[in-house]
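Long-time lurker. I teach an intro course on protein structure, and each term I like to show students one example going from raw sequence to a predicted 3D structure in token notation. This year I'd like something fresh instead of my usual example. Would anyone be willing to generate the tokens for the chain below so I can use it in lecture? Attribution to the forum is fine with me.
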Amino acid sequence: MSALQWVCGPVAVLLLVAGFGWLGRAALRIWRTLRLGAPDPTRTDRPGQRLKAVLVEVGAHTRMLQWGVVGAAHWLVMVGFGALVLTLVQAAGQTWNPRFEIPWLGHQAWYGLLVELVAVLTLLGIGYLIVVRQRAHPRRAGLRSRFAGSNFAQAYFVETVIAVIAVCILAIRGFESAAGFLPFPTWAAPVSTWLGSWLPGGGFALAAITLIALVKVAVSMAWALVIGQNITMGVAWHRFLAFFNIYFKRQPERTALGGLKPMMSNGQVLDLQEADPETDTFGAGKVEDFSWKGWLDFSTCTECGRCQSQCPAWNTAKPLSPKLLVLALRDHAHAKAPYLAAGGGLTAEGEEKLSEADLAALAHSDPLAVLEAGRPLVGPAEFDELGRATGGIIDPEVLWDCTTCGACVQQCPVDIEHVDHIVDMRRFQVMIESEFPTELGGLFRNLENKGNPWGQNQTSRMDWAKDLPFEVPVVQDVIDDDHEYLFFIGCAGAFDDRARRTIRATAELLHTAAVGYAVLGTAETCTGDPARRAGNEFLFQMMAAETVETINTAFGDRPTKKIVTTCPHCLNTLGNEYPQLGGNYEVIHHTQLLNRLVREKRLVPQRRPDEAPGRNVTYHDPCYLGRHNGVYAPPRELLQASNLQLAEMPRNSQRALCCGAGGARMWMEEKIGKRVNLERTDEALTTLAGADGGKAQGGAIATGCPFCRVMLTDGLTARQSQPAPETSTGGTTVTTSTAEDVEVLDVAQLLLASVKR
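-- Reply from a regular --
Happy to contribute to a lecture. Here you go:
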């Protein structure tokens, strides 16, 4: 061994011991920190399905590949991280002996080819991701950049480490080729062989191999030391934590959409009839009220900003960013962790659990932990005289901007459950603090006193059926045997004039197809969806219990209880949340049922063989129909069957933009930024104009949700009287002439017009 090797070898050993030791210590810290979260025993069932979910989501990169080339590049980098781990072993050996190869494996041609391909592709993958980050940098993209608010220094560090390691691998192999002892044929190491033809051999090559091997070990261990010191460095730690976060997600077969997570306390679903404010938690009022899975969510965030890029609030210049919300909770949780680990906290009477002496000792050893412990979870931003944050972790405006559309959850590649966490914080604010937007007070009173958000009398619930040319069957006691479906009208269908037209069209189509159905009439009340999304869990459960009893009574002892509804919010609540309360139904959206009737030829849209395609139409995906319940194809198939020209908006299907009504936002004013419904209306009008040579005259915006229809109609009315500003919709101006003669219609209305021709 040369003097160089006597120096490099021991240094490499010291670096490896320090790096892996520090990494192991950090992993233990993370595990202990996550245990500070509240218990949640619901995350360990169905281990086989959970393992399958991890293998599919990670191996196939199902969520990442929705972004095309970016997803493929990330997959290459991920594979490189795992597949090239043995090159660290070889590099460590080569600091002692440049000719070192892993026994047996290191001389296999297939292994040489594998390392060659993975190293090259990893370098290409990280190079592409670096370019993407720079092209989407906030300095260029402004507010809409998905990287706005991300830690760029940490990202640059990780990207540099990956690139340097890949370069080191190829350089070592190149010098091995130059020295004449690369143990692979040319076809198994084409890049290394080519590099070797340009590099010097002999003693210089041997020294270069030793030095580059040490650089590789040093860079790898520098990475380990840095992330070991920074356990909140999600851009690096997600490489390990993502597997666990995906495994422990709420439902292994899908994302945390559809029904909300029930309110839990002490690891059990909270029974509000028996809840004790002295011992139970109502939502999340402190960071320790989030479950350990919530803390794992916060720690796993990669800061990629996919959630942020899809958020309707962020896209309309509001302060809410799902990414920044999670990062704020992460930083607060880890900063407060030493205080909680020491036994800190407040009793039910609001007294500190730690003694004065213990609290003083902690304040001396970790003043940040004590400072963080004094901050409220939700509250306006405040700072002390030293510029340190002392106000709320989450600003109330951020909390209430959320439409619960689920775009953040659907896009997150590591299955963070943003909506559940937001609603848990809303629950505490509503049920314990009584702090919520003033508009929600009227909503809650209307729901409690009148059984609907509009505050209308129950006697008006059947007004939609007046003057129909056929009788609408109403359940008197138990639904008749010849009525296959219970048609759940919903509050919008009963009380909003625009939604009533959808209900009438659907009823007429069902009558035409001879589908047996009945309605509850004045016995129907709100499902409680807006109350639950607004955080009023008590009101939701009260209304849900009443509705479950009414529906169960209507179905009698019928084994299969089928419900059809035009409202995706009713669909979601009846189908995904009522099973938690004893209501087990087969719930279908009207577009699904109508599409099946068209396929069965029970409804026949009229079209002459020589007829030209009809009017242009663009379809807006309701969030609670699409993302939350996966219904994308039936509405589009119905539009095509109705001889309409479907023009898709840039943001459609899984990446569709919300209308702005969800999460009880229908009853709250938007005070900051552009209105969400205007943003979506502008996109629809621009799409129709593009499909019609510059104008959207005579076109239609179709949807399958009464709330979407209200929001889009209001947006259209605004644009028909006032054009959009120049900066709207990616720089495209939407003028009053663009919006002429455009209508917002439900898919059922368009189908009915075709059937009745």
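Some talking points for your students: The CA atoms of residues 120 and 344 lie 51 Å apart. Strands lie at 264-265, 268-269, 485-488, 517-518, 562-565, 586-589, 616-619, 645-646, 700-703, 743-746.
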